[in-house]
Amino acid sequence: MVPSAETSAAQLLNTPLERLMGESIHAFIAPTSAASFRRMLEANPSGSAGESTLQAQDGSRVPVHLSLKPLSMDGVHVFSLVATDLTERKQAEETLQRAHDELEERVDERTAELEHTNTLLQTEIVERKRAEEELESIARFPAENPNPTLRLENGRTIIYANSAARATFAEAFAGPGTDAPGDIAAIAETALASGVRQEVEHRIGAETYLLTFVPFRDRHYVNVYGIDITQRKQAEEALRESEEKYRNLVENSIDAVLLTAPDGSVYAANVEACRIFGMTEEEVIRAGRDGLVDLSDPRIRPALEERARTGRFKGELRFRRKDGTVFPVEMSSALYTDRDGQVRTTMSIRDISERKRAEEALRQSEERFHGIFDWAGVGISIVDMTGRILEANPRLREILRYTAEELSNLTFTAITHLDDVHIDLDLFEDMIAGARDSYVIEKRYLTKEGLTVWGRMTASLLRDAEGRPHYAIGMLEDITDRKRAEEALGRRTEDLIRKSAEVEAARDEANMYLDIMTHDVRNANNVSGMYADLLTELADGDLKTYAEKLQASIERSNDILRNVATVRRIHEEETGLVPVNLDAVIKNEIGRFPEASIDYLDPQIEVLADGLLPTVFINLIGNAVKFGGPDVKIAVRVEEHGEEILVSVEDTGPGVPDEVKVKLFHRFERGMGRGNGEGLGLFIVRTLVERYGGKVRVEDRVPGRPGEGAAFRFTLKPAA
Length: 720
What we know:
Elements: H1 7-13, H2 17-20, H3 34-43, E1 48-55, E2 61-73, E3 76-85, H4 87-140, E4 149-153, E5 157-161, H5 163-168, H6 182-194, E6 198-204, E7 207-216, E8 221-228, H7 230-251, E9 256-260, E10 266-269, H8 271-277, H9 281-287, H10 300-310, E11 312-320, E12 326-337, E13 343-351, H11 353-375, E14 379-383, E15 389-392, H12 394-400, H13 404-407, H14 418-433, E16 438-446, E17 452-463, E18 469-478, H15 480-538, H16 541-572, E19 578-581, H17 582-590, E20 597-600, E21 606-609, H18 613-627, E22 633-641, E23 644-651, H19 658-661, H20 681-691, E24 696-700, E25 710-716
Parallel strand pairs: 20-22
Antiparallel strand pairs: 1-2, 2-3, 4-5, 4-8, 6-7, 7-8, 9-10, 9-13, 11-12, 12-13, 14-15, 14-18, 16-17, 17-18, 19-21, 22-23, 23-25, 24-25
């Protein structure tokens, strides 16, 4: 009776645990093993072990190894029974036995072929001996000889032919006194001339004959004796074909094949054996088994013992090449007996170096994969084709706050936000159907606590060797913080768009007021200018002086309006640089100041600029005329400096102090000693020059002497 049992025992017997408990153990012992099991129970008081067969509830039988040990449980004498399932081992043994039987069958077939060939050879020897005896009798009784006999006079003319000869040479035989067939006559003449007996094989119809030409020179004739050797030739051809098949099988084998003896002697080696060992066949034979195997391999002795015990061996060993390198092989070897009764062995060897390297590469690849899988900074999951999660790395478990066991009971749809499930599922099904190999999706996940986590998931499909979908790998990047930042940025962008629209509206309104003011001020200046001009013409003395100052103020007001308009154009018009004739621009602006002394050489150069380029020269030349004094001299120079055009506007006026130079081109800055102004002209100059890709600066006309005039220099890009 079984008082206690483990679940594994119930699974092994395919029997519910409750039924197993309380049942007699003999009920589960197969009838074929009942007697041996009883002997095990009675064999040794300290316990015993051995192989047996258990019978499950459904009648199936399970080969096992049983270990029995007596115990005392609460004063009751019981046995501890441990059963180890031998099903896989038995299946392996059966597979090995089938392979052994197949090889033994091939050896038996080859042995039978060799024995048959030997029988044929022995038969041929007997036939030859009988033929010789028949030749002797033929000479005495040619008429009664069942084999063809001819006598050829002078080696050509038939003077005698027995009935067998007449039947054999029926087509060529026309009776005594006729010539023998040409090929036979030629051989007969050669035999008669040499006096040497000749033997040739001659085919007549479907039969083959051994013809013996015996010359009698003193009598001038040749006797021809024929023996039908058709069957012998057929046997020889069958033997040749058999040997050719066997030779082709061995020589063209992708495995190395050695014919050896149990003592390690090598008798033959095929081409592949010579190749993998790097030796000639003679060198392989001289080396013997001990010169080919790696004798330090501990598996050698057990392999030899197994072959001696069972007649065959199959397994992995190490061999050694001629250059000393050791390489792994898969070898099968078997014993057989040749026709002389000698025990011989065959060894079939396959170099598995590439396979071992591939296995090692696979092992390293798996180690790398597991290293990446376990330590990756992104979540990684492996799912089957139903979407069930097979594995999840630590990072994924950290993101979703599940244990590995909990995730293994879920599908990927169970951890996906309900609103994103259908999109992810459609992409997954397309991938399985072959429409895509991978996809990327940003979706929401649900943690174990039900919190929402945003992730960017990349899914890839892996296929098996037949190209069928095997499983999918998903890599998850936690983008929750990015999504929150994007949401905040979106809100900020909306605020900026709204405020930008408000600023745009305010700017349009300001431009409207500026247009109105500029228009009205310009009209007022025009009217005021007319009256100032009239007053200047009519007045004298102090009144004339006041009128002239009024004119200057009106002109400054007009300059302000022009500068404001220029600034607006700079900011409102798009930068579209085109080739501009620099000489024409300079000459045109010099023409605005006919009373000024301006020196200029007119090089024909085109630069990249736009319609606002004249404003640069209006401001620079105008400032030199306005602030240089009545005797000021102005020079405009244009020079080519590599990939730049350097333009200089120099004057002999009061110059610019050093402390002013650094801020002269800033907005609303006026040069000390350069008169009064609104401070926009040079700012506009700098803005336009930089707009054209150049730079502007102010220097002393004479280095180190600020009081002897200023030099304004700027660069432009030449037109291509």
